Amino acid sequence: MSASPVCRPEEQRPDWLDSDFWERLDRLEGRHQKAQTEHESARRGLDRVTPREADELRNAWRRYCEVIDELDKTTAEFETLRRCSG
Question: Domain for residue 81, yes or no?
């Protein structure tokens, strides 16, 4: 899953989108990137767990589910922004 590239301050942003939109987009992209990083980290954690480590597996699974939930929320917000700006 990849997000749109973050617009840098030096880049020209379209005038027809107000600054509130760009601020929201920047915050959302940061959250989305963080969630993607945490998702990958959680997935790698699951790969390292052996069947004998049941407590560790439960903790890793809970973290994985929390990160997936945040990733789903940020992805849905991206879709809302795309629909509202398009």
Answer: yes
What the block records as the tokens of 17 is: 């989108």
Alpha carbons 70 and 81: distance in angstroms, whole number: 17
pLDDT tens per residue, range 55-72 = 888 898 899 999 999 999
Q: What's the pTM value of the predicted model, to 2 decimals? A: 0.52
Specify if 64 maps to a domain. yes
Coil vs helix vs strand at 26? helix
Q: Are 45 and 63 in contact (CB under 8 A)?
A: yes
Residue 12, in any domain of the structure: no
Quick: pLDDT tens for 5-19.
555 554 677 777 888
Residue 61: domain span: 19-85
